[in-house]
Amino acid sequence: MRILLCNDDGPDAEGVRCLQQRLSALGETWAITPDRERSATSHALSIRESLQLKEVGHRRFTLSGYPADCANVGLHSGRFPRFDLVVSGINHGPNLGDDVHYSGTVAAARQGAVHSLHSIAISFPDYNPQASAERPAQWFAGWLQRNLDRLHAGIVYNINYPDEQAGAEGFPEERWTYQGRRTYRDEYEILEEGNGEALLRMRTTEFGHVREDRSDFEAVIDGCISITPLSTYTTHIRELKRWF
Hints:
Oligomer: single chain
Largest sheet: 9 strands, mixed
Helix content: 25-40%
Distance between the termini: 45 Å
Number of helices: 7
Structural class: alpha/beta
Number of strands: 13
């Protein structure tokens, strides 16, 4: 099995390093990551700009593009072998609810799903890119080995590992969930203004969520590992039926 690893935190993040180390026992791993931090870039693709691919280690590459570019170059540039699985992460910071629309981590996995590959995105709650992701990486390697034959191609399995107490014994409970609903309170700071122009910068966004049973939020709040199957098919059937 050949595994393509991507992320949106860049090549030096501990999440992807821990993941590559653990998954090497299951197959041949190749890592293609953005050459810088690319969080919240969603499913951006570089269709007019040239991309610089650089080898930085044994089967480790950086790309001057976005997370979805990394997956696409790995799958379609002709520079790499055929991959069986795309794994994106381990992201430093959660990807819950509507975060999946903005997440570069989820987008890299989604790019694999669009091309009918087995695809997984995995995140954990520590935003520090140098924080150890060894625990979620260890759990994920075991989970993947147990469940790979049960996964379906073309689906993004969005996994969020919860915060843990130091020295915890055993891994958290696994819970299959649906995508919850995030609430945002966005504000912008006006840095400069005049002559019909303004220079803006987003202030810190306040996050919340809608309390719903069996959502990804509730699982993580309960200290469980959330596993949410996401479809690339986004037509709202009930609304379509209402009109036709």
